[in-house]
Amino acid sequence: AGVLSKKYTCYPSVEEQIRPEDRVDERVVIDERVITSQGPATAICFALEIARVLAGEENFKSVKAGTLASYCQE
11 has which bridge partners? Predict the structure, then answer.
């Protein structure tokens, strides 16, 4: 469909089906205007990145602190 840009992440069982050379092994990847995530277990990290993009860094940090999701990227 041409949605992905250069780098992305995805659910492990489909990683070889979608341009494996561009896949990044991270919970959440932002590339241009597309945010991708590895799956259900990374939903909190995915939501936090959306909050960062839409509401800014300060709000992101505040929300992240409230979720106790220290495993998500800074």
Answer: none
16: three-class secondary structure by DSSP? helix
The domain limits of the chain are 1-55
Per-residue pLDDT of 56-72, as tens digits, reads: 999 999 999 999 999 99
The secondary element (H helix, E strand) that includes residue 34 is strand 34-37
| Three-state SS at 33 | coil
Smallest CA-to-CA distance from 17 within 26, 34, 4 is with 4
What does the alpha-carbon distance between residue 49 and residue 72 come to, in Å, rounded to a whole number?
9
| pTM, two decimal places | 0.83
Q: Which residue shows structure tokens 């979608």? A: 18
Amino acid at 7: K
Burial track 6-16 (b if 16+ CB lie within 10 A, e otherwise):
ebbbbeeeeee
First vs last C-alpha separation in the chain: 30
